[in-house]
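chain below, 190 aa
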Amino acid sequence: MSEKFIVETSARHLHVTPKDLETLFGAGAELHYKKELSQPGQFACEEKVTVVGPKNSIKMSIIGPCRPATQIEVSYTDARTLGLNPPCRESGDVKGSCPCKLIGPAGEVELTEGVIAAKRHIHLDPETAERMGVKDKDIVSVKIDTPERALVFGDCVARVNPAYRPAMHIDTDEANAAGCSGEVWGEIVK
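prediction:
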């Protein structure tokens, strides 16, 4: 029997650089902790930003801490609402991705790139990855058992790092397709 891990729905959100945070929220701005997320050191913030695309805008929460590049992660449904067609990429890979405008209470930021649909992925610590026979950047399939909507997701990136806790992240479109609600578990299938 293979090892199971929690499957979490990652709703639309953004990560910001310290510079963009100050532009959006004012000089000396800091992120304010709202709640801890499953991955160590990651937290939802009180701060929200309006993301503007060619067709519409959506208010989104910031995830802290600040990062080296500002990045907006959306589902394809969100992207259609905004009027964008972002590439499906791993978090942090924003080169050549979609542009957008961010509006905060103190200012605006015009991004030439930064909007992606995040690739579904599994965070694993090295010990768990080894037990599962998985290496960093392996592409695997994951079976999710939910009442009446069980399905296997292909193209899941394994991300292995000593700082990670085992958890799979899927976006809201993927969670809806699998009928995810409450606590949901997945397992790698060969």
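The longest helix spans residues 18-25. Helices lie at 18-25, 76-82, 126-132, 172-177.
thats it, cya
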